[in-house]
Amino acid sequence: MRFVRLLTDHDKASFDRISTHPVQSWEWGDFRKEYGNRVVRVGVFIQRGKRDLERLVEGHQITIHRLPHTSYSVAMLLKGPVPSGQVVEFLKDFGKKEKIVFFRTEPNLINSGKISRFLVNNGFVTGRRFFTKSTFWVDLGKSEEELLGGFHPKTRYNIRVAERHGVRVVEEDTRKAFEKYLTLTEQTAGRQNFFAHTERYHKLMWKHLCPSGIAHLLSAKYQGKTLISWIMFVWHDTLYYPYGASSDKHRNVMAANLMMWEAIKFGKSLGLRKFDLWGREEGRGFTKFKEGYNPEVVEFVGTWDLVISKKLYPVYRAVEDIRWKLLKLPLPFPKPSFR
Q1: CATH class as words, domain 2-133+300-328
Q2: Where would I find the BioF2-like acetyltransferase domain in this sequence (predicted)?
């Protein structure tokens, strides 16, 4: 027998065993819940007979976001599996009861026509992306010599420059190091003029993911000062690089190049299989930096919306498009405060 039900805290261990990405971890859901989102977890179970234990074979963590000044919400199923037909039917019923305009999913699966056809046949339409559609993977199964040999010559040179200057990279999952990360994040956001998550967001993320062993902090130090702080996620056999911040001091010592190399070695030391560099955007400066490490380009299935309210969905998408266009304009509006 195969059935769908909402999950409870008793299902945590089973859910984490099969979850496909750090943002699908139970701990991430608890973080989002404390941050203010409603979090729902749905599972598909198999039970051979009445006396057999039920076994979780498919799980989805859903964050529900209330639309301001309305009784409606939108829901996100990011980086999970492709929802099976049973889950799709469950979501349709649940969405109608809970006044959800649509469910947005970005399966953590490599692109294939078969998956896209399944989604279209089950009522999904393409949506606006949350994560980038493609990313970079570094194969941590290779030896250090193989990896270095594949790097761009300029990247190898910059790594040696950092080493000659005495730059050190250390893991330090301490409160002091995290406070320095917050300071550098605020500085980086101001310098590069991008919208960073708030200090509260970062603190709650760290509170839930560091004690569980998911989040780690690497610092690149020069002459006793932290130049770069990266937060890394470890989930199953994969290392992830979701957040980074840097000082504008001593850029000539090439600390960033050594930081990436030491992050790769950090993943290898943990016996992980691959390093996901968390996104790729053609032509962007940091994408070019990542390309120096000779990673594999991986393209995912993309963003798909399961529309529940056919009346409100076009309105939401129109407002969403306008919002993103405005955010890209150099308007004289202050950015949301980091603090």
Answers
A1: alpha beta
A2: 155-281
